[in-house]
Specification:
The protein has 282 residues and is an alpha/beta fold. The protein has helices at residues 48-60, 72-81, 93-102, 116-126, 137-145, 158-165, 169-174, 176-187, 222-235, 240-258, 272-279, and strands at residues 13-14, 37-41, 65-70, 86-89, 105-108, 132-134, 152-154, 190-193, 199-202, 208-209.
């Protein structure tokens, strides 16, 4: 038992490959349509990197087709950097709806902001019944909406969880297990409370605890990558609960492998090759 485990609830479970789902080998006669379509929405003015990280992570973990809906000013630049991602300039919700109709899962929030543009795109997503991974500013928008939904994974850090529960970050950190359960109770779905010892709450079952990860992962973009990883696993057929649990473990393990060169200076993009290697061993 490690020191941190002394404070685990009796019914908590540590995430480990032995209790996580397996993706299995791909058949030879397969095509990209078999592995889902992820739509990543975000990247307001000055923030295109966040949505690009989420989308690239989804592609690296095996989603069949990954698209980005972002500001028109960013679309060509992102496409030039990573041509495998289909990037669309979207300035109004009416332009987003055809992309939503073609998607099998949505990531919304990375670099989204809280402008009128962000709010109308978030509202358009809420009009659908698509499974969603809700991150970053989409969580801040959700805190003002108080919507309850089963078909989403919410991925707050402690500050975002505090806004969702109208309390302080210190209160969240004082009892993280109660906090993750309360966010799930109020908003539904599956909840991933990020931080040292990331927690995953789904239904009334034991909370999943991630023992991996390292301080080097306290850097910009790591949460964006996690949202893309979880979305890709949903796109490939895992349940929201299984995708959240496996995605959290993959993200932490990839971060630990990338940190072998040192924790300081670890970038979110540094974990991409490790994600690809790990997901192919499952």
């Amino acid at each position: 038992m490690t020191l941190s485990e002394e404070f685990y609830p009796a019914d908590a479970v540590t995430l480990h490959p032995s209790n996580l789902p397996k993706l299995g080998a791909r058949p030879r006669n397969t095509h990209k349509g078999d592995y889902g379509r992820v739509l990543a929405i975000g990247g307001d003015h000055g923030m295109p990197g966040a949505v690009r990280l989420a989308a690239e992570a989804a592609a690296r973990v095996g989603a069949g087709l990954v698209s980005i809906a972002t500001r028109s000013a960013h679309a060509a630049h992102i496409s030039a950097q990573r041509p495998e991602l289909l990037c669309y300039g979207v300035e109004h919700a009416n332009e987003l709806r055809p992309l939503l109709s073609a998607a099998s899962v949505v990531v919304i929030g990375p670099g989204l902001g809280q402008s009128p543009w962000a709010r109308q795109l978030f509202s358009a997503v809420l009009e659908t019944d698509l499974p969603c991974v809700v991150d970053a500013d989409a969580l801040n928008l959700l805190a003002a909406e108080s919507v309850v939904r089963d078909a989403w994974v919410l991925t707050p850090h402690p500050g975002e969880a505090a806004r969702l529960l109208a309390c302080t970050g210190a209160e969240i950190q004082a009892d993280r297990f109660n906090a993750v359960r309360e966010v799930r109770r109020r908003y539904g779905g599956v909840v991933v409370l990020k931080g040292a010892g990331t927690l995953v709450a789904a239904g009334d079952e034991p909370v999943g605890i991630c023992a991996g990860g390292n301080p080097g992962m306290a850097s910009a973009g790591m949460g964006d990558v996690l949202s893309g990883v979880i979305a890709a696993l949903i796109a490939q057929g895992l349940s929201l609960r299984d995708a959240a649990r496996l995605g959290v473990w993959l993200h932490a393990e990839a971060g630990d492998r990338a940190a072998s060169a040192g924790e300081r200076g670890l970038l979110a993009s540094d974990i991409m090759p490790h994600l690809r290697s790990l997901v192919n061993r499952l």
